[in-house]
Structure formats: structure tokens, C-alpha cells
Amino acid sequence: MLEGAEFYFNVDHGYLEGLVRGCKASLLTQQDYINLVQCETLEDVKIHLQTTDYGNFLANQTNPLTVSKIDTEMRKKLCREFEYFRNHSLEPLSTFFTYMTCSYMIDNVILLMNGALQKKSVKEILVKCHPLGRFTEMEAVNIAETPSDLFNAVLVETALAPFFQDCMSENTLDELNIELLRNKLYKSYLEAFYKFCKNHGDVTAEIMCPILEFEADRRAFIITLNSFGTELSKDDRETLYPTCGKLYPEGLRLLAQAEDFEQMRRVADHYGVYKPLFEAVGDGSGGKTLEDVFYEREVQMNVLAFNRQFHYGVFYAYTKLKEQEMRNIVWIAECISQRHRTKINSYIPIV
Amino acid sequence: MAARDLRTQVDSLLLQLLRDLEELEAKRAALNARVEEGWLSLSKARYAMGAKSVGPLQYASRMEPQVCVYTSEAQDGLQKFWVMRASVQTPEDVGPREAALRRRKGHTRTPELESSPAPRDPLNWFGILVPHSLRHAQTSFREGLQLAADMASLQIRIDWGRSQLRGLQEKLKQLEPESA
Questions:
Q1: Cα–Cα–Cα angle for A329, A330, A332, nearest 5°?
Q2: pTM for the full model?
């Protein structure tokens, strides 16, 4: 593709880029967070959010206000914005948006399968599914008993179909297999998304590829950390690592052999990007967890994406930043409703 | 004299009562701290996993208890409570003179051959790869359970102590006018 997105980009995507930059400017500021932290009840939080871009989004909620309701309404708002972008997009931006929704679709599929295991009704779970990952075949997911079943009967016509190559098996879907399915699907999805961005080239590849490499490596680290002390074998663990990151191949091989946090840290020390992140992790219950540190780095990378023009990364970055804002608000709301304010300032401001 | 004996009895009973009350307060503060810690760890898990991944969607509306409360009568007729894993079919024979509260938590026994399969860890409702905050929450709530059983036993002892104290004080009052 001829380099020089600045010549062609605005023809098809200029309006949407302008729109998303406007949306980004209305994210909550540090002052908004300071006001939220000082609230005493969830009603106060609702009042403060009315003065921001959220407006009266909680107006139709019946008493009492819960954190779960706030989260659901925020998600609906994000979904409305995203659907607007998606409906007005042209190729290849539309494919880019489809790739973005795949991760939410995977989460919804897993939520439905877990619900089937716990004998919950489909209607109950559909209400709680992520709106960005909605697709028509969702309701039939709970009938499948094995991954091959799931693919052949339900998902073969959906956007998730190409990610099933490594996941076909006849094992019944119990908790371990559902977890393996989730991670394998996500691995295939991430690698496919990475390839798409790389093939697109231009500024999009320059912005999106490092972000997706970081996402792949972050997943490898978190999977390793959470697998200590579980029944997941080291070989199984290695099959779950996405290979489109900086850690591939030596780092992933070392990570697969790690047995505790210290060994993981030694693997990270080989990489200039990850060494300072691991050094920022506090020990015990006092300081930051590894997830916090990774979220901070993600926010940094997403904010920097807005410094370049004429690329699709701004849409991805805006969605991720909005999600971080939702996580922040939910965290503050939970601290307020539990009246446990010691850690209320652990949110990540978006500057 | 009968009155002096009674008074020493009243004193020792009062001291025991106050000690029990202090222990109860300490246990209550510890239980509150554990429960608060547990809830905050759940919020942290929601932050890491997504707000809808740790909630009522993940557990069945009907579930088998993992831990049961057992009671027994001790030597002085007081009831003692303790919590035990439900997989243990029969508790060890508590000797009839045994008054001590025995901790069973962490005391794993191989399940009897005919017993049902070992109950699944509720942590796995949320997936196999769960963040450490969720495990931390489970530990906090488990410790809270043990504390709750201890507190129940203590409260029974305190109530009994108070009624004993009242009885003794009545007897004292009856004796005093006679000796006057």
C-alpha cells in the first residue's frame, strides 16, 4: 500500500476521526475524579456524573442505585457511541471494528457457557452480556456440549469462526476446558488482529502493532501468574500464550517453565520494556499489583495513539480509554458503597 | 462463712465474664476486618476481571454447603459450635468429658470410599485462572467463618455466665439480711 495515509484517509474516515477525537476530549479529567472521590453515597456520584459528558444516563434507574446498574448504563452508552462509529464506517475500517468486537463476543460466549454449567436460564445471562459483543447466534450457545459442537452448530457463521482452528476437540466443556477454550480463542483472535494491522501497514500498523504486542505479552504474564497453584499443566499453559508479542519465542518458552513470581520477574528482566513495569509492582497487599501496572502502561500507550493522525488506532485507543474510565468509576463507587476509603485513590487518571 | 464463699465465687465469675467479653470484642473486630477485606478483594477482582465476571451470574441458585456447623454439649452443659468441612462424614468421637473446642479446619481426611466426590472449590466458579485478589477474598471469608463459630460459642458462655452471676447475687442478698 502506498505510504501516505494523509492523502487518502480523510476521504473515507475523516468524519469519524474528528468525531472520536471529540469524544476523547470529553473523558473525565483529574478534577472530575477528585470530585467523585469526595462523594459520600452513590447518589452523590450520580449527581456529579450529571455534570460530565455522561449527563442524565442514570435518570431512569429505580432506587436503590447499585454499582452494577451504574456499570451497565455506562456500557450501554459506550455501545451507542461505538455502534454509531461502526454504522458510519467504510472498509477497511469496518473490518477493524469487527475485530474489536470479537474480544467481547468471546467473553459473551464464555459467560453463556459458564451459565449453562451452573444451570442458569439463557435470558438471565443475555441481559448481562456485553452489548458490544452481541450477535444473533448468541442464544443458542448453551446447547453445545463440546467445542466442536459449538463451532459446527452455532458459531460457524459468525466472526469467531476463523479462530476455532486450534480449539476443536471432543472434550466436554467443564470449567477447565472452558478456560482453555477462552484463552485459545483469544490467542487466535489476537494473532489474526495483529496480522490484519500489520498487513494494513502505514500509520495504523505503527500505532496498533506495539499496542497488540503489549496485549499479547500482558496476557502471557497474567496467565502465568494466575496459573500458579492450579491444575493447569505447564504444557497446557504454553499453548495459551499469544505469539504476536515481544516475548515470542524465547520469553514464552522461559515463562512456560516459571513456577513463581520471582522466576517470572527474571524473564521480564530480559526485556527493556517490561523490566521497569515489574519493578513498579509492590509486594504484598500494600502496593500496586501486576494488573494495575499493566493497566497504567496500557493507558499510556493509548493516550500516545492520539498524537498521530490518519490511522485507525484512535478508535481502538478511545474504546480502551473509555473502558479504563468505567473501571475507575466502578472502583470509586465500590469503595464508596463499602465505606472502605483507604484505597479509593487507586484509579488510573487519563491525562 | 457462706457469704464470703459466695462473694469470692461472684468475683471470680465476674472476672471470667469480663475476660470473655473482651475476647468477644476482639473477635468481633477481627470478623469485621476479615469481612471488609473480603469484600474489597472482591472489588479488586472485579477491577481485574471485569465487573460482570464476579457476581451472581457465576454461581448456581442452589448449592451444596462446603462447611457445616456442628454443636456438642460440653461438660458443664454448655453448647459449643464448630465449623467443619462437609466432606468429613462423621466427626471424630468427642470424648464425653472433652470440653475443649477443637479446630477441624485444615485437618483434611481422606474421604470415605462410599462418600460423594470431593466438592468443587467455589473459586472455580469464576474460572481456573483467577487473580490473586479472588483467592485472597476466599481466605478472608474462610477465616471469618471460623471466627463466627468461636463468637457464637463465646456468646453462649457469656449468657450462661450472666445468669449464673444473677443467681449468685440473689443468694447473696438472701444471706446478707440474715447475717446482719
A1: 65
A2: 0.88
